[in-house]
Amino acid sequence: MTLTTDHIANGDDLRHRVPAGTKTRDSLFWNIVLPEHQVAVQIYIWTDGDGVAGRQVAVYFPDPARSKILNAFQVDLGPDMDLDDWLCAGLGVRHTESLRCSALSFAEDGVELDYRFTATHRPFSYRENPAGCPAWLATNRFEQTGRATGVLRVHGLEIPFADVWTHRDHSWGRRNWGQVQHWKWLVAGLPDGPAVNAMFHVARGEPGINGYLLRSGEPVPIVDGRAHAEYDADMAQVRLEADLIDARGGRTRLEMERYAIFHVPFGSDNLLSEAACRAWIDGEAVPGQFETLWPASQLRRMVEET
Known about the structure:
By secondary structure, the chain is an all-beta fold. It has one helix at 296-304; strands at residues 26-34, 39-47, 52-60, 68-76, 86-88, 91-97, 101-108, 111-119, 124-125, 140-154, 157-172, 180-189, 195-203, 206-215, 218-231, 237-246, 251-266, 270-281, 284-295. Helices cover 3% and strands 62% of the residues. The radius of gyration is 18 Å and the shape is globular.
């Protein structure tokens, strides 16, 4: 498996150092979506150039009362701690093989997680898409399908998982939240089958699309697509249908249906909503995740006018 490309180099899953005083952030994401257990997990971490960091461990169910969304903010880890061996408020992260393997561990507030990620293909850079990586989103960003093995303990349950589909990403550079009006970020797949990452976005009044379709183990850039989503009365995503075209001329149909969701206020005026889904890629059943971003003020107006 070739991992480095013209856009991704060894070490790009670690911190990206910048001169002192430069506004920047590294943010990383991993998930576990287990429809058969009616549960999903999201792990999200971030750090600025000075090593001031945060983390979120979210375990969510169809019944929101059972969900645990565990956040830590403004944790000063100092400028030297890197992601090869990183500890933030009880969450341990290790990158054990560059661009391929990572391991996470967590135990707090009734949640225990042991998680090991192994990539099933090289990292896909958003610079590979026709319009490149949007400047408001990141200096660069990679997405990567993988397989996960580990165990989740919550509410007295022990849920082992072995060789299940999982997804991770890593963005670095400044993110300008004020320039984006909406996005739909979609991931779905199987560890030994089809996989997709698609990000439909509207920023500064212009629509765009990023992401890839997995073809014979190789991520192929998406060049065009359309998506239609349905929402409930609170504008929380319920289901989605998308048609995607890749750089080789292939066409793929993605369908998603929510079974659990949680919401994350972010920045001064944004709401992220994370939906764990049953999904279908060209009719084949797969797990998936469907994330939306809305400016909170716009969302309130849409809900009031529904």
